[in-house]
Amino acid sequence: MDSRSNWKAFAKGDLAARNTLLTENLSLVHHVARQLERKLTNELDHDELVSAGTLGLMAAMNSFDPERGLAFSTFAVPRIRGAILDSIRGMDGVPAHKRKYLKQIQAVASGTWAPDDTIVFQTDNTPGRPLSRVSAAGGKAAEPIKTRKLKLASTT
Predict the structure, then answer these.
(1) CB–CB of 25/73 below 8 Å?
(2) 66 contacts 4 by C-beta, under 8 angstroms
(3) From edge to edge, which strands make up the β-sheet containing 141-144?
(4) In order of start, what are the domains of the chain with their CATH numbers?
(5) Model confidence pTM above 0.70
(6) Which one, of 86, 54, 57, 88, lies nearest residue 72 by Cα?
(7) Measured between alpha carbons, how far is 94 from 11 in angstroms, rounded to an integer?
(8) Kind and range of the H or E element at 20?
(9) Is the pLDDT at 84 greater than 90, yes or no?
């Protein structure tokens, strides 16, 4: 059977056609898993990534419409990647908003954080001189940044 007839048979509920399509497209899962392994710094188990990606492949197969004229690989790869990333996020244990907050704290500590896509810099090394805000796109200095001192609670 060719791919088009497999898709038609799969749409009618044929399990053999589903297995054939799954086997034919499993290489997409391995390809995406290898790409993500290279990009991510964590030590991740390849088999776990492939397992999560296979679930994404199956979900893509269920929602794919071959009549639209789109190649299945074009349709499936983002869904496979998304399923793998969702699986990794699920293993993390730290909610996304807390991870974003942690990155902001690290950026502030390193002096690289700026709200609203701006670059913050000190115009010279004069103590007490305010920081200036420069648009990342325009490069023109804007108003000085208002800062406030934190009042620490007394322990006595």
Answers:
(1) yes
(2) yes
(3) 118-122, 131-135, 141-144
(4) 3-93 (1.10.1740.10), 111-144 (no CATH)
(5) no
(6) 57
(7) 39
(8) helix 15-39
(9) yes
